Amino acid sequence: MIFQSPFRGGASVPHRKQTAERATTVMPVPPKVIIPLLQHTGVICDPKVQKGDFVKVGQILGDSEKLMAVPIHSSVSGKVTNVDLMLWAGGIQVTSVEIETDGKQELAPGLVPPVVRSKEDFLAAVRASGLVGLGGAGFPTHVKLAPPAGKTIDTLIINAAECEPYITSDYREILENTESIVAGVQAVATHLGLSRILIGIEDNKPKAVEVLKKAFSGDPKVRVLPLRTRYPQGAEKMLIWATARRAVGVGKLPSDVGVIVLNVTTASFLGKYLKTGLPLIKKRVTVAGGCVKEPQNLEVLIGTPLADVFNFAGGFVEEPRKVIMGGPMMGVAQHSLETSVVKHTNALLVLPASEGQSPAASACIRCGRCLTACPMGLAPLMLNRSALNNDAEILERYEVMACIECGSCAFVCPSKIQLVQGIRLGKTQVRLAEAKKKAQAAQPTTGARA
Ligand code: SF4
Ligand code: SF4
Fold first, then answer.
1. Whose CA is nearest to atom 1 of ligand 1?
2. Smallest Cα–Cα separation from 201: which of 135, 255, 258?
């Protein structure tokens, strides 16, 4: 069965998934890795090693006692040559550990499968594995699996939509590691006591749909749901509606409607970790785009510099116009090939001018297409204008913070107006206005009677 109306709005984006049918290649150990101590949504980890230390694969390099953090492990064995601020894929400087590899890939002692006898053991193991959302979000998985008290979860949704153009890393995970996906899904369902599991996958991946249906055919709790292909199907709120027909309101979370959403590669990693005890140290990355000589999926050690990844993929066949970590709709443009692959890197795209150049914007013709395309029901044109006017009040009134930055509005705009850039600016203006209000409220009132 195909769900015909996945969600309101969205866009029909080109698929460009030419790497889909090529098996993943394991990339060799690079001469050095740069491992940032922030690879998740939340708080940066404190360094646990220093310059001159020798480290082994799976050894903890950084950790934090804060809730919104997960340990960062070494992906290699070798010598720590620097612990300092270094350029991070997000475009800012972040404390990172640089390691000169020795090529031996010696494992740290104590890497054994975790003993899990209770839900608490399970959540502790998930945290210890260093797992974050591997679909691109990087949200700490142990936090996602432990919603606040009072929220009743009855459904696990596995996100296998992979709706952005070019990216095929989840698709290859489904074909190459099906057993791990089954093990991961069953572990989450067992330890969280969930009896309904929905797997949402777009109908442009018929082979993967069949593989998943066969793998889960003996489990009545699991339903594999092929969804009509529509961007941004993989966004949490859209997927929850498409699969479970539950609407997550503005400012609300999936747990508010009784749902936890996990990316399919995240679930698969969990299956592997529970079996091996090897923490998150490598990632499958789709390397693609018109400039890449040999587009393919590579299994890359975390911390590998982008330059090494592209060299391994044969280098560039023409002058790159844009390098993106992630997909072309929601990915982050990279300004240096010295940044490195992090936990949630699912794609590296190198686009020539013909694919990556933003055409010059012209005046808005008030066609309303951006309104129709917005899956969140926002008014992108109004938000963009208000941001240009620095009008935080209007931005808040029109719920700028609800924008998921999917880029559907800009994609359909015939005038090629950079709506998402404007909306991001608007979000910053709202945050600044809120901070200013708080600071003013915290100031002691003058003229008060003694
Ligand atoms: S306003 Fe935000 S959520 Fe709506 S289409 Fe544009 S980027 Fe997507
Ligand atoms: S899609 Fe572009 S041209 Fe049309 S109303 Fe929106 S901003 Fe204006």
1. 380
2. 135
Residue type, 51: K
Question: What is the distance between the terminal CA atoms of the chain, rounded to a whole angstrom?
Answer: 74
Find the DSSP H helices in 193-263.
206-215, 236-244
320's tokens: 């790159």
Nearest ligand for residue 374 CA: 1
Pocket test for ligand 1, best of 164, 408, 430 (most atoms within 8 A of CB): 408
| CA-based R_g, the chain, Å | 22
- Provide long-range contacts, Cβ within 8 A and 24+ apart, for 109-117: 109/56, 111/58, 111/276, 111/277, 111/278, 111/279, 112/277, 113/273, 113/274, 113/275, 113/276, 113/277, 114/273, 114/274, 114/277, 116/187, 116/191, 116/274
Rounded distance between C-alpha atoms, residue 318 and residue 291, angstroms: 5
The residue contributing the CA closest to ligand 1 atom 4 is 374
Other Cβ atoms closer than 10 A to 85: 12
Residue 415 C-alpha to ligand 2 middle, in angstroms?
6
Provide the 3-class DSSP secondary structure of residue 14.
coil
378 lines ligand 1 (CB under 6 A): yes
Burial level of 433, CB count in 10 A (0-12/13-18/19+)?
middle
The C-alpha angle 346, 349, 352, rounded to 5 degrees, equals 170
Instruction: Phi first, then psi: give them for residue 81, nearest 5 degrees.
Output: -105, -15
The CATH architecture assigned to 119-276 reads 3-Layer(aba) Sandwich (3.40)
Query: Per-residue confidence of the chain (450 residues) as pLDDT tens digits?
Result: 545 456 889 999 999 999 999 999 999 999 999 999 999 989 999 999 999 999 999 999 999 999 899 999 999 999 999 999 999 887 889 999 999 999 999 999 999 999 999 999 999 999 999 999 998 778 999 999 999 888 999 999 999 999 999 999 999 999 999 999 999 999 999 999 999 999 999 999 999 999 999 999 999 999 999 999 999 999 999 999 999 999 998 889 999 999 999 999 999 999 999 999 999 999 999 999 999 999 999 999 999 999 999 999 999 999 999 999 999 999 999 989 999 999 999 999 999 988 766 778 999 999 999 999 999 999 999 999 999 999 999 999 999 999 999 999 999 999 999 999 999 999 999 999 999 998 888 887 654 443
Distance of CA 406 from the midpoint of ligand 1 (Å)? 5
Asked if 327 and 164 touch (Cβ cutoff 8 Å), the reply is: yes
Q: How far is CA 49 from the centre of its chain?
A: 27
**ipTM confidence score:** 0.99
For the chain, what are the domain ranges?
Answer: 119-276, 369-441
